[in-house]
Specification:
The protein is mainly β and 142 residues long. It contains 1 helix and 9 strands, in the order αβββββββββ. The protein has one helix at 4-21, and strands at 24-25, 31-33, 46-53, 61-68, 78-84, 92-96, 99-103, 121-125, 131-133.
Amino acid sequence: MRSPALVAALENAIAGKTKELSMAEHCPFRRYDALDDVDGDGREDFLVLFTLEGPRGGNHHVSHLAFFSSSGEARLPVRVRTGERGERDPIDVRGERGKVVLSTPEYRAGDPMAVPPGKGGSAIDGRTGACGSGADTSKEAG
């Protein structure tokens, strides 16, 4: 169970990003990982993938990751933009030693929004927050 202080820090981090971008968040779309040790200190870290949308509806959305290191000072998260509509849509998050791994359907150049995107993935360096992509250009069946 995560502490009330960590839950408050998460909510404050998301509220800050929604205000900064003048967007809104829908909590049911969050993805959590609290079982993996990303920073290598032997303790579980807390990862939250969240998506922000325009405040008056529409189809545009932007995804972000909040990473709370178990050894982080004052429980301040590292926040990283992880994708957006027409680029990549992270649907799953997990930690591996030294990195955060995202499962991400990714759009190729010229893909219509209605066409299932190619499979892909991204890894975020747990120390620097740098995000790299590893798109697979194949289409999903179906």
